[in-house]
């Protein structure tokens, strides 16, 4: 019966000397103090991260990213569970057949466990209940163009019947919340980040969040706002939560750690949608996260092939919008969070318990008897510069390159078995597609 101990184990929100005893893939008991077994002191031992917003893109666009590379990057970042988004794979995950195609593509390739979101698009309401029964954890929609034509945007008229089905199925609706409106496009340099920032204003997010709040009020369906970047949407969310509506929101490392003012001209690794905004907006997101108006943090890892980033021209308006950060999320968020006085327990709540709860993975939220033995040991005080040659993403294109970040992942365990040793993936691939509630 293996055991893991450290002088700093995260138990019930506190870092304490403890030993985690594992039987099978689950925690058998947690004992105060250090016993015989693997002593990890002085590393922090805490539940492995759950990243509930990852675009793996396989099948169909595996050259952008795939299950093999994405799950290795996850393990190296201290993440033991991913939830895959329903695009940009081919086919998109909007039918039961497409869900099974994605599951089959994943088998035998997974270094970590992977669950799946389905998609809501116009005309697929008849697929949703069956996909939920098969194991889709929830369903994502776009209120604007998704970037690919085979995942069209949904209107209010599309969402009302879908939300009624999801309410009965007990699944949340995940919303890319931007409602496009006509803008006066400035005659400006497309290599300048300010030109792109102007093209996707905060008002698009604010209007979308207000619309979803109203639909939640009408339908009773749980809704979740993905990758919130607009600080001016926060009062809308705060009021909805005070009203008792079942609505949550996430934000991402790039909105918390990067600033529009610092984006170099033509460096399209920084392009994402919604966009990275100014420093005062970033400060408001941090405050909302601390308050609980924003519930948690996920990567929104959305890579592509280098050619789609338009590095040859540096044109922000034409480049693919997506940031690769799956392996770096813990380090990036911890670097900024620690500077603001937040502790390890708060990081675990934001990057493990919150995402796991949204996806219905309740036994992956904390170190406790009966829960999964998915663990990460890391050195929060170590710091070094991001070396893209050490990233496991298929394409190591990231705005965090050469950035000095705190925290070093030393080991990651999946079900009590070592899967990452601080240098590489070890042992046989142990990850599984998660098709039923765990």
Topology:
Elements: E1 3-11, E2 14-23, E3 26-32, E4 38-39, E5 44-47, E6 49-54, H1 67-76, E7 79-84, H2 96-106, E8 113-116, E9 118-119, H3 125-134, E10 139-142, H4 156-169, E11 173-176, H5 193-199, H6 202-219, E12 223-225, H7 234-242, E13 247-251, H8 253-257, H9 279-291, E14 296-297, H10 329-339, H11 344-358, E15 375-385, E16 404-414, E17 417-420
Parallel strand pairs: 1-4, 1-5, 6-7, 7-8, 9-10, 10-11, 11-12, 12-13, 13-14
Antiparallel strand pairs: 1-2, 2-3, 5-15, 15-16, 16-17
Helix pairs in contact: 3-4, 4-6, 6-7
Structure characterization notes:
This protein has 438 residues and is α/β, with parallel strands linked by helices. It has one domain: Alpha-Beta Barrel (TIM Barrel). It has helices at residues 67-76, 96-106, 125-134, 156-169, 193-199, 202-219, 234-242, 253-257, 279-291, 329-339, 344-358, and strands spanning 3-11, 14-23, 26-32, 38-39, 44-47, 49-54, 79-84, 113-116, 118-119, 139-142, 173-176, 223-225, 247-251, 296-297, 375-385, 404-414, 417-420.
Helix content: 25-40%
Please, what is the average pLDDT?
A: 96
Radius of gyration: 21 Å
CATH architecture name: Alpha-Beta Barrel
CATH class: Alpha Beta
> What's the helix-strand series?
EEEEEEHEHEEHEHEHHEHEHHEHHEEE
Strand-pairing-aware structural class: alpha/beta
User: What can be said about the biggest beta sheet?
Assistant: 8 strands, mixed
Q: What spatial form do the alpha-carbon principal axes imply?
A: globular
For the secondary structure, the number of strands is 17
């Amino acid at each position: 019966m293996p055991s893991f101990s450290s002088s700093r184990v995260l138990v019930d929100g506190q870092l304490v000397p403890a030993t985690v005893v594992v039987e099978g893939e689950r925690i058998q008991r947690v004992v105060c103090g250090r016993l015989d077994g693997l002593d990890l002191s002085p590393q922090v031992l805490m539940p492995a991260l759950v990243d509930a917003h990852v675009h793996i893109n396989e099948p169909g666009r595996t050259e952008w990213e795939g299950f093999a590379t994405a799950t290795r990057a996850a393990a190296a970042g201290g993440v033991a569970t991913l939830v895959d988004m329903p695009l940009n794979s081919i086919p998109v995950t909007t039918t039961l057949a497409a869900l099974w195609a994605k599951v089959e593509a994943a088998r035998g390739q997974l270094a970590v466990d992977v669950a799946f979101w389905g998609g809501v698009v116009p005309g697929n309401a008849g697929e949703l209940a069956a996909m939920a029964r098969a194991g889709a954890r929830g369903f994502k929609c776009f209120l604007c163009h998704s970037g690919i034509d085979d995942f069209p945007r949904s209107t209010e008229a599309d969402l009302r019947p879908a939300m009624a089905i999801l309410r009965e199925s007990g699944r949340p609706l995940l919303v890319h919340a931007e409602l496009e409106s006509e803008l006066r496009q400035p005659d400006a340099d497309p290599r300048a980040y300010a030109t792109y920032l102007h093209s996707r204003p905060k008002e698009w997010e604010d209007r979308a969040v207000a619309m979803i709040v109203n639909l939640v009020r009408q339908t009773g369906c749980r809704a979740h706002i993905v990758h919130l970047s607009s600080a001016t949407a926060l009062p809308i969310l705060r009021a909805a939560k005070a009203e008792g509506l079942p609505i949550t929101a996430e934000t991402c490392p790039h909105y918390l750690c990067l600033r529009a003012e610092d984006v170099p001209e033509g460096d399209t690794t920084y392009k994402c949608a919604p966009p990275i905004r100014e420093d005062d907006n970033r400060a408001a997101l941090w405050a909302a996260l601390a308050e609980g108006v924003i519930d948690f943090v996920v990567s929104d890892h959305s890579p592509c092939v280098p050619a789609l980033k338009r590095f040859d021209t540096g044109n922000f308006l034409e480049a693919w919008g997506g940031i690769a950060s799956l392996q770096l999320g813990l380090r990036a968020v911890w670097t900024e969070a620690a500077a603001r006085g937040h502790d390890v327990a708060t990081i675990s709540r934001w990057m493990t318990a919150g995402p796991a709860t949204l996806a219905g993975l309740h036994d992956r939220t904390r170190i406790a008897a009966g829960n999964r033995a998915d663990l990460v040991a890391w050195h929060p005080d170590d710091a070094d510069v991001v070396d893209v040659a050490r990233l496991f993403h298929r394409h190591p294109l990231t705005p965090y390159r050469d950035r000095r970040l705190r925290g070093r992942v030393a080991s990651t365990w999946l079900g009590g078995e070592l899967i990452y040793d601080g240098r590489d993936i070890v042992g046989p691939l142990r990850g599984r597609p998660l098709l039923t509630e765990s």
